[in-house]
Queue: 2 jobs
Job 1
Amino acid sequence: MQGQVALITGSRTGIGRALAEHFCARGATVFGCSRSPVDWSLPGYQHFRADVCDEQAVCSLMSTIRKSHGRLDVLVNNAGIAGMNHLFLTPLQQARSVVDTNLLGCFLVSREGAKLLRKSSRGRIVNVSTIAVPLSLEGEAVYVAAKAGVVALTQVLAKELAELGITVNAVGPTPIETDLLRGVSEEKRQRLLERQALRRLGSFADVINVVDFFARAESGFVTGQTIYLGGVS
Amino acid sequence: MPETRRVSEVVDCILHSVALLNRRVTKHVDVARREQAPLFGPEGPLDSIGLVSLIADVEESLEERWNVTVVLATDRAFSRSRSPFRNVAALAEYANELIEEKLCKAKSR
């Protein structure tokens, strides 16, 4: 990662923050964004307050990266929100927010990010999906639909951006102790773990390992793939 | 800045981006035809990847010149009966509209 320029969305907490720390520790220049400001700092890290659904904010963020570095090497579309409710208990506005942030945010940041990634000798997009997709997890219909959309977007963008030298892949983490999981009951967590081949909560390191694999120079022939963690397929 | 002068500058930005693109593609845009040079569509030489590269280059060039972020791929662009990407003149006219809107918005703030 030495000398690479990376952008991680949803970097204020959880997986995004862990990825930012990891990339910075390896010598990358890291830009991150979230809707709220961060209360931490890192050498090599610059944070922006930007909603991934806001076209103007995303364009401004890319403009800043272009003016300072002229290119982007790695984009991790990590920003996401969950809406964990039965269909009957899901308000339309919540459904819209979930689709906007998880799917359209990924689309928008990819579209604008690709304009800078094409200037890299090895542009990489890594999208964050979830094992809830292959599990067709009940109680999360809209979240699963949006994240399934992220997988589909990954496959199509892999083809559309191949000619620009950009690979597009996705990682599907298992539940990790993050803000997203805090509202899930212990019983539901256990039921979920029982559906994994490897029955434990995931860690940030598990996700970082896959993102690292997709981002490295040797992975230039890997695109359009989604790796689900925990033995879920 | 008078409208016609800005359109002419937008044309220059587009032609500069086209010249850069011509170095990377096999089917070249005929820059000698200036405003009348076809870009994309039945008469244009660009394929879809050529067009997206040009769009990104032109957006960048416009931002450098006018300090406004412009997204050319809008609903408006794709809903027009005649594509603004068909030739340099059409793209310049369309880009000028977007710049005008952005500059007005910035002024009114």
Job 2
Amino acid sequence: MQGQTVMADRVNLLRNKGAHNRSEALIRAILLLFALVSILTTAGIVAVLLQETVLFFREVSIVEFFTETRWTPLFASKKFGVLPLVNGTILVATGAMVIAVPLGLLSAIYLSEYAGERARKVLKPLLEILAGIPTVVYGYFALTFVTPLLQRVWPETQAFNALSASIVMGFMILPLVASLAEDAMSAVPQSLRQAAYALGATRLEVTLRTVVPAALSGISAAFILAVSRAVGETMIVAIAAGQQPKLTLNPLQSIETMTAYIVQVSLGDTPQQSLAYKTIFAVGMLLFLMTLVMNLISHWITRRYREVYE
Amino acid sequence: MNGLFANENGRFDPRLRQRLYYGRLFQAFSLAAVTVGLIVLSVLLLDILLDGYKWLRPEFFTQFPSRFPEKSGLRSALQGTLWMIGLTVVIAFPVGVGAAIYLEEYAPDNRLTRAIEVNIANLAGVPSIIYGLLGLGLFVRGLELGRSVLAGSLTMALLILPVLIVAGREAIRAVPQSVRQASLALGATQWQTIRHHVLPYAMPGILTGTILAISRAIGETAPLITIGALTYIRFDLKGPLDIFTVLPIQIFNWVSLPKAEFQELAAAGIIVLLAVLIALNALAIVLRNKLQIRW
């Protein structure tokens, strides 16, 4: 990239520096502008969220927002405690991780360490179909297939509940975990495996004591990215988990996540200038910060702890 | 020493049989994990097919949504999806490819470039509903585009931009330096080199990435709900400033209605949605295999 720019400059020197150079510079400027759109997008997100959030906190104290345990902005007696929404979000995301982490990691191990080249070429794209299915489809599946199943096992399961959303979301993020963890394990050099085999280790021991530890930074980065995805996921919870913000750890009950609340308000007829309407930006800001922090940690782990071989 | 590999007499015993047994057990477990994922995938597809196939009649594609299930159809949703995707591509493609060209061919190695790169990586991880809030604040209210299909497309364009840029950069990077050097050596300017040599070779990869980005946009629901795309529209979409609905929103609307027939309509809508996505992905694969140049 660099060498080529230098070269282009030299070529330019050899030519008459007239109109050609001006149009070249213009094109370069336009392309730079396009590249800056991404920065503007981030700036736009922060500006929009911040503007409305500041307006929101002029009317509601930030202490109430983080300590009050009731969230009822749409009712007559308004309470603005975000904790129930955070609780719902974490409850569903935890459930999803309980499914996605073991299944995803085991799948990654199978694909990277056990499957032959041909089996992997078939299995990996098949698994990745799961990641390509629109989330509204998962929502439908959770509501009309998984929830009735759960109700047969636990009759007290509510029609909208955190568990069915969790389970389905777990399968949605499974390919993400599997794919990223597999990339990390495939990047472990063959010589490490050969050394372990030479010391008499079995394939299982090579996998669990050499490959997985060597790939641990990549694997944990994958987990954090998966949590971030689960926290930001919207349609599954909006369809299947309900609209009742409450502080509960019972996954069979109806709850509400931060994302589902934003959908609820967007669908309703809340006036755009009302305080209730500003809540979605405050909740959005919190959601944005939560996922941003997780994404940054994930990137940081990958860069900081990447084992460099050769 | 009574270590891992000592028998009761304290002598060395590799316990190979036991360790290999654990190994086989573990292999079976991990194969089972892959299989569970695939089983869930097949159950999901089968469940939706069985729920929805009987509603897939010609009228389903030509009727507007209605209070009566048998009179309901996807007409407005299909129009909305087509309009939205068309506008999104027109907006996002030049910007995405332009940004990719800049980052691969022009960008000096400085702080601004690194900031752009880190920023793109972070944008890819922002939840889609946040883009919806951005679109609501910036396009619906700020530019006063209202709940129009144009506002939806602008929002969606920003959402798929990181995907487009990453795919575009990969495709451009895969074009060997010798192609550029040959062109520059013959006296072409940098832009002439890019325009006539790099881009044509990179185009199959760029198009494949674009198609995959489009299929992401077709399935997205949350950001469009947030900017206020409607769920119930009973007239034809005439222009970019009209209000609109799209396939996944129509499906979402039917899922939330209590009547069992509407749930089946939702399943039928999902079948259509998945069929479109499968067709697009097949096209992407064909494009990749047929047009891609191996160096």
